[in-house]
Amino acid sequence: MSGTALDLSWRHGGAPWGRWRGEPGPWPVIGALVVLSLVFQAVNGNFLSADNLVNLTLQSASLGIITLGVVLVLMVGQIDLSVGAVSGLAAAVVAVGFVQQGWPLWVAVLTAVLLGAGIGGVYGLLTTRLGLPSFVVTLAGLLVAVGLQVRVLGSTGSVNLPYESWLVRFAQQTFLHPVASYAVVALVLAAYVGSRLLERRRRVEAELSAASLPTVAGRAAVLAVVLLVPTWYLNTDRGVGAMVALFVGLVVVADLLLRRTAWGRSVRAVGSNVDSARRAGIAVRRVYVTCFMACTALAALGGVLSAGRLAAANQGTGGSDLNLTAIAAAVIGGTSLFGGRGSAWSAVLGVLVIQAISSGLTLLNVDSSVRYVVTGVVLALAVTIDAVSRRRSEAGGGVRR
Amino acid sequence: MSAATDHGAGHGSGPSTTAGTPVLSLRGVSHSFGAVRALVDVDLDVHPREVVAVVGDNGAGKSTLVGIMAGTIVPDAGELVVDGQELGLTSPGLARQLGIATVFQDLALCDDLDVVENLYLGQELRRGGVLDEVAMEREAWRVLSRLGARVDSVRAPVATLSGGQRQTVAIARALLGDPRVLVLDEPTAALGVTQTAEVLTTIERVRDSGHGVVLVSHNMADVQAVADRVVVLRRGRLNGDFDAEQASYEDIIAAITGVSAPRRRRTAGEDA
Predict the structure, then answer these.
(1) Could you read off the pLDDT of A209-228 as tens digits, one per residue?
(2) Which tens digit of pLDDT belongs to each residue from A344-375?
(3) What is the ipTM of this complex?
(4) Residue A320 burial by CB count (10 A; 0-12/13-18/19+): exposed, middle or buried?
(5) Distance between CA atoms of A136 and A144, rounded to whole angstroms?
(6) Which residue, among B9, B1, B45, B5, has the nearest Cα to B24 in the 3D structure?
(7) Contact (CB<8Å) A277/B110
(8) What is the least distance, in Å, from the CA of A167 to any CA of chain B?
(9) Domain A3-174+241-369 is of which CATH architecture?
(10) Are residues B147 and B218 in the same domain?
């Protein structure tokens, strides 16, 4: 939503609806989503039903929040393998703190998220001060978090959350009122058009190239369709889940932070070339630490919400393939494993692809083995696109180190 | 090497073409990497409106000197004096704040970021807490056109630019905060003939606008084209300080290599 949207590609920090210079941008992912939807819909007419899509969005929210954190860490060229374990630990802390220790629920939630941020802080210190590779540090963190999760849950290994608690109600039954959802859409559109027009006026005054009024109107119309159609369709069933709204809201905040603040710019700079960033006077350590902390805090929040959605926390929460799914979602969504390129929106797109595959194959009564294989193939495709587009932009460049 | 610095190194008392207080002085700077003594007791003065060339063979300590002025290397001993104040340069950001801007040999650009983002990296303009892209883009065009740069779009990732364009972006970035001293590390090493000429013109332009310039190079043609003063490093020590107009090519080469020059041996400060 800045001047960069004029001609800066999505993965280089432009808006997702900006222009791409020989870069695939989000189109491969969007294309994959469309193909998957059509195939599943053709085989099972329930796939694109409002009911199924409401479920799909609800299932996407907590994984999406975890993925958003992974996106931040990938953008600085690091990795966090422990997001699943941290989310499981956070779920355990909330359940045990609230149910067994009798803490107020908000205290339990806050404790879990702060604990998550603290774990990220430790990762950040170990990688920046001691120079340990994040791969190993977070692998160690994974083991520690799993151990703590089992210990916190105690002998029963499972703690149920009462259905009447606000966390469970928020995660399971709270939907935006249709009026509220349309009001939010209208507000977003107004903010978008307003900021574009303001931007345009400043650019014209500065004698810079500026988007023409029809272009602004056209982009606003596209955005309106993109926002209104899903909102309307979900509203024909239960509506937009509160958790979904929270997820999208977090993505918007992260997107604005990444594209419009000095912090976001330093994140991309560090991911692109850490030596250059350091010599440009950027506090590189602080950037790493903040990204690790944001990642684990978001993972913890995702774990808390999934505990709310399941109304329980057990030893399996956050386990099995959640780590890898979150990382795969970030990469499928278009964030580069090589650092420096990506967008907060890739969390949304990637998670939608993963959940579409999962939901579609469940509707088809296909064994979960197929789901893993399909997801794996999609991930391999996404990484290929990433690597090829990176190599192409390198080949097109001038002198490189 | 005992008499290595007997000839006019420092305090503007030597054959310098410029007088007055230096904008930047290094005093007794030494630095070691493990057992390797990269710099030993080096003094250097940079005056306004002066191009000081630092020459030397590979491994003479040139890059270490650049790193110390840029704030990326904290020397073991010695100090920097900026405007009469003794300082410890502990970070690149601090160096910039004090008006010492460096163009590194590898340019230190971020390939994924566009021209404007690279120009303002670490010193972004803000407006109400968020980045002021409009002001940065306007200034980017201004500073690039002042350098006579030919760039189609300031919003293209620098990975898509040519070597010369990247060099110009790096120099433009260094000039952004109107620094007192511009340090260039081998600025023409990767460039063709035309681009080299452009960079040398840029250096003269920067000098004429009142900046002090430190040109680190082992290209003697560049040095003789723009330098006012030539400082020779040899094995981490100062090995001569020449007035560029008077010193001959042979004198400087002799000081670089340590081979005794056939003539003017003493004035070259060489200790045979």
Answers:
(1) 888 899 899 999 999 999 99
(2) 999 999 999 999 998 998 888 888 888 889 88
(3) 0.85
(4) exposed
(5) 12
(6) B45
(7) yes
(8) 34
(9) Orthogonal Bundle (1.10)
(10) no
